[in-house]
């Protein structure tokens, strides 16, 4: 009988000890408590930087001060063929990896394999899965509107010498042109009377008019930058200069 009593006493003491220990640990707050170990997980986040044209992939770990044995990055542009583009050793998390996409590609697909504590982790975890990054390339090609080169001719008649001084200028600076002057006194038959080659514009050239005439009609053909321009532009037009003394 005494033996049974000792057994019951022992069981009672054990229950009291377990209950007391449980109460103690459950009331330790942040300084104690029952520690339940959790496994380490890894994740990634990716964005496309339109300014640099790179994809920035950030890899994170669920715990601080994690250093993995290695990280391997696999890239694809067609969701079918993935190529290992980077292998990093002794990787401290978090880590940022920049990937420069191939020219002309609009989407980048990737997954990674992390080796840590003798285990292999795939990101994303499901076999055959991958992450997708949209590549937005803005067309910043500046279209330069080309304006046609134009010319202006100003005639000045000196009734003392009978010379018409032509001042020719272009709508752009630092131009050199070959100038052909066609003249007429009846505005019907025009003759090439002056050829001024390699004339730096603005520049001048002269024509000696017939003192017996009262009106001079002319037009110019100007060869500049391998293009030929007519002044005035219309083929049937000319310019009249009064040359009466």
Molecular structure report:
With 245 residues, the chain is mainly beta. The chain is built from 1 helix and 16 strands. Strand 1 and strand 2 form a beta hairpin. Strands 3, 4, 6, 7 and 8 form a 5-stranded antiparallel beta sheet that branches. 10% of the residues lie in helices and 50% in strands.
Low-confidence stretches: 28-34, 140-144
Backbone CA Rg: 46 Å
Structural class of the helix and strand makeup? mainly beta
Distance between the termini: 159 Å
Overall 3D form: rod-shaped
- What percent of residues are in strands? over 45%
Supply database-style keywords.
245 residues, five-stranded antiparallel beta sheet, 16 strands
Task: Please give the structural blueprint.
Elements: H1 2-26, E1 42-49, E2 54-61, E3 67-76, E4 83-92, E5 95-99, E6 107-116, E7 119-123, E8 131-134, E9 151-158, E10 163-170, E11 175-184, E12 191-201, E13 203-208, E14 215-224, E15 227-231, E16 239-242
Antiparallel strand pairs: 1-2, 2-5, 3-4, 3-6, 6-7, 6-8, 9-10, 10-13, 11-12, 11-14, 14-15, 14-16
């Amino acid at each position: 009988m005494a033996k049974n009593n000792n057994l019951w006493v022992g069981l009672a003491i054990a229950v009291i000890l377990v209950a007391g220990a449980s109460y103690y640990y459950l009331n330790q707050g942040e300084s104690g408590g029952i520690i339940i170990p959790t496994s380490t997980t890894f994740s990634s986040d990716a964005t496309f930087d339109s300014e640099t044209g790179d994809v920035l992939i950030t890899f994170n770990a669920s715990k601080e001060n994690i250093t993995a044995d290695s990280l391997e990055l696999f890239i694809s542009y067609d969701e079918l063929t993935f190529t290992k583009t980077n292998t990093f050793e002794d990787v401290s998390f978090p880590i940022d990896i920049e990937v420069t996409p191939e020219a002309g590609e609009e989407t980048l697909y990737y997954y990674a394999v992390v080796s840590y504590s003798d285990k292999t982790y795939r990101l994303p975890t499901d076999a055959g899965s991958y992450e997708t990054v949209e590549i937005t390339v803005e067309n910043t090609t500046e279209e330069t509107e080309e304006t046609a080169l134009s010319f202006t001719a100003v005639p000045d008649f000196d009734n003392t010498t009978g010379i018409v001084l032509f001042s020719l200028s272009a709508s752009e600076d630092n131009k050199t042109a070959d100038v052909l002057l066609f003249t007429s006194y009846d505005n019907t038959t025009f003759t090439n009377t002056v050829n001024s080659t390699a004339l730096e514009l603005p520049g001048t050239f002269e024509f000696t008019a017939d003192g017996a005439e009262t009106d001079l009609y002319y037009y110019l053909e100007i060869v500049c930058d391998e293009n030929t321009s007519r002044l005035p532009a219309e083929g049937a037009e000319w310019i009249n200069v009064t040359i009466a003394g």
